[in-house]
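Hi Y.,

Following your request, here is the sequence exactly as I used it, all 902 residues.
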Amino acid sequence: MINNSYLLGLFGTTTGTSSSGAATTASPAVKTKKTQPTAPWSSTATPAKASDLVRAALGGRRLIDEGNVSLDLAGASTDYRKMFALYQGLNTLGALADRAGVKGLSASEAALVSKRFGEGLAELSTYLSTASFEDMRLVQGVAQTSVKSTYALERAPTSFVTAPIHDGDPTATVKAFEGDVKFSVTVKTAAGEQAIAMDLSDMGATDRSLANVTAYMNGKLEDAGVATRISAQLIPAEPKTVKSGTKTITLPAGPDQWALKVNGGTGEAISFQAVDTSDAVYVTQGVGKTGTAGQLLKFQADGGAAPAARQGIDDPFWVEGRVGHADLPNGVAAVKASAVAPDGSVWVVAELTAGDASQPIKGARDVALMKYDPAGNLMQTKLLGAASSANGFSIAIDDDGRVALAGSVTGALEPGKSGDNAAVADSFVSVFDSSGQELWTQRRGAKAADEATEVRFGADGMVFVAGRSKSAMPGNAALGGWDSYLQAFQEKPIKINGPDVGVNVATVQFGTSGDDSVQAMTVSGNDLYTAGVENGKAVVRRFTLDADGVPSLASTRDLGYASGAIAGISVENGKVVVTGHTENTALDIATVTNAHAGGSDVFIATLSTDLQVSASDQLTYFGGAGADTAADVAIKDGKVWIAGTNRAEGAGKDDPTSGYLAQIDLATGQVQSNRTWRADGDQAKPTSLSIAAGGASVLDRLGLPQGQIMQADSKLLTVATSARVGDQFSISPAAGGRAVTVTIDAKDTLESLAKKINAASGRQLEAKVITDLKAKPIVQRLEIKTAANKDGAVISAGAIGKDALGALGLTPGFVGPVKPDKDAIKTYGLNLSNKLNLNDPASIKAAIESLAQAMTAVRSSYRALAPSTGGITNTQTGNGSSTAYQQTQLANYQAALSRLTA
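Below is the corresponding structure, written out as tokens. Let me know if you'd prefer a different format.
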């Protein structure tokens, strides 16, 4: 039998029903005085249909409209009107998210729903940052006494640890030390610099163990009068886990490993130089079934003076000539391009779906420029800073070290500029100095989707960009399908004494009525060449450049049906060289040195520079009977280096895919070397290739880079984070009032930003740079907390496309006392991220869950606003003052009991 007194006791009253359940006089339903207006989620309210909410939102109606809220209680606080309007906005966002998850939704409607969701989220952020509540506080983020940035700046390092060079017995002879090992260490101080020669042959018959070799090196350093020292660093072995089906198996720990550690002396800058070198070839690749795990591989080219390459520690897929490999960080979704800088470092273009814990991205997908030293150590990550999504396709490096990056961006890139349509991709090009600081960015798109696929530097400050577009580029006419385009930018100041920026001086749109693309481009003197696939044909075009860098089409060469893709184009020894892969066994070139072997083969075509048919034209095929592809190509000293994949004849998509690096003589077509390798999951997929002259040496086996080590990271927020100049957030008083905007400047650091926050908060907050001693390595972060004896403040995210908080890893919300006096207003955080989107099923699911939690927070704030009813005590808990919601439930229970006991 139901214990009625228990049920009613939960709501602060009792009945005449005994605990034994015997019926007595039925109690009438309790009538309570209305103390709160009816909430839109109440069972007595008529909820809006989800379809109506979606229709209204797509029609452009505001999601949050206080004028559309009716209160059924005279004299109710205005907080209720704001609260209900906010709830309706959240409900509409939830309806949009639900609609996005409907199966069979057309691409056009999905794009429209996604766009409107982003606009609605921005509307909600703006509303919360300006709405002033009287008796409570609602914030988009969370309420906390302090907040720390996840972005962290590593302190200037004082030591450098190499990759492991030895395992097992530390007293044994180290293989990496065997043979002709000689190099120099340069130590630079304020008094000058000196080069200290290291030649292990000086040790004579002494065993080349870790202890003996480091003792020899330190003796040389000591004799030179420098404080820098080199030691052996233990890397303890740890058990490894692998998965076999649904089971996780723990493997025993292997032998301990050892590395070299360079301990820098105070005021000493250390660099290493090789004595004997060979060229180095870098290859980026994706590995595993999904291909998203990225790696940077380093090979030593044949020839040169460097000692032969040897297999290192922890390199299970080693192949002859490989001198190093490095795993790219977690969060890398794709590796698209790479190039070698004048200092020998390698810039890698990667796309991220998640940033490092200390360097978050702002949107769902961003482009990163990752700078690696010659030993494969990540020195710097420069994030593009896209607010929504970006893709990177091409990189170029000028002789002065400047870096150009081209790709596409959806949503805002430069603060507040989302293009004609925030849901459609636009082309962009950005140029950075050698340190990674952005010099200028140009975003020039068509009405429909477009993307920049190639970028190259020209003479006299010219930058050329090629790509494809689905509609007319500015000043041009569409030809049909995807069209190819070519843009020319002149670097020059647009203000007196202003910095150089990229000024568009020409845009040429070309192609056919079908789908066209530019897949490779090169500049040679006053000629610019493009190669791509136009309506299924492999087409090469030559443009002449006038004195202002304006291109004009001069000639075109059709090589026949592509049935594949173009990997590269260059001018070498007076010939245009086009490389790619094709299933076409008879491309339109008369002289063939090596025949097509079946399936898909790599091809190398040499053409005259005017693209006219010539007797000297030559075609070389390379490959086997299976599927061979060319991902990237580079030419040096008459040798064509190609990286790509090969698969067995008839192989399915899940069958093994091998990577390869081939060297082919351009003049004869003879294959001079061909290295193939496997990778995790039997899937190795090279994506780019670059060559460093003299970049390989004995230093590779020692884990030491050529060049300077222990370089400090940039402190500039616009270099070290995804924040861009003009990004913002705002700070408003805890009790409501005018918000003060904090804007990121080009020279801002953590220190300068802390000063801005303190000033913007009216000294209600205390922002400062703290040292995180628990982090490894030790880093510095920004900490914001309530100032002593102050009320705190509300930190709100910037507008969509201009938010700086996400780039810094700061959470919006209330920073202040979380346990205020009983008379102080309470804060309720929605914990709603500005990064929510409807781009894929996982994002849709996350958005729905976040919105549900936010609506729960609004309902909690409603219950907290209920006035005390007094005089009623919960007989089960002893607590007083049940809420109006509880009284309503009590009335329902009383009525039900009356019917049961009648």
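DSSP finds eleven helices and 51 strands in the chain.

Thanks again,
Q.
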